Amino acid sequence: FKEELTGPEYADRFIKKVTELGIEYKLNTMVMDIQQDRSVTAMNREDGLFTIQAGAVILAMGCRERSRGALNIPGYRPAGIYSAGTAQRL
User: Fold this and answer.
1) Which of 17, 42, 55, 87 is the most buried (most CB within 10 A)?
2) Strand, coil or helix: what is 51?
3) For residue 79, what are the β-bridge partners?
C-alpha cells in the first residue's frame, strides 16, 4: 500500500481490496492436497470436501509471534514469518 500501516490497518485494507476485486477465498478451511496443475482439495464445515482449480493459492497457517520468554527457547521469531511492519519495510 506504499505507506507504513499497523497490522490491523494493513489487514483492513487487504480485506477491502480482496472484496473489491471479487477474489474468492475460504476461511477456516483445511487444505488436504495441492497438485502441480494447481488443483486444491480442501474441506471445511460449510462445504465439506471439495476441489477447486486455482490461479494462485495463499496458505495462512495462523502463526503468531510470541516473545522469546513466552516460548522458553532461544530465538526471536518463527522462521520466515514477518510482522506486517517488517514486511512493509522489505
Assistant:
1) 42
2) strand
3) none
The CA-based dihedral angle spanning residues 43, 44, 49, 53, taken in that order and rounded to the nearest 10 degrees? -60
Say whether pLDDT at 29 is over 80.
yes
**Would you state the torsion angle of the CA atoms of residues 11, 14, 18, 20, taken in this order, to the nearest 10 degrees?**
110
Residue 74: per-residue pLDDT: 58
pTM of the model: 0.56
Q: Are 42 and 31 contacting, i.e. CB atoms less than 8 angstroms apart? A: yes
Helices (H), the chain: 7-21, 68-71, 84-89
Report the alpha-carbon distance of residue 87 to residue 90 in Å, rounded.
Answer: 5
Distance, CA of 4 to CA of 59 (rounded, Å): 24
3-class state of residue 9 by DSSP: helix
Gyration radius of the chain's alpha carbons: 16
Q: What is the pLDDT of residue 7?
A: 81
For residue 52, give the 3-state DSSP assignment.
Answer: strand
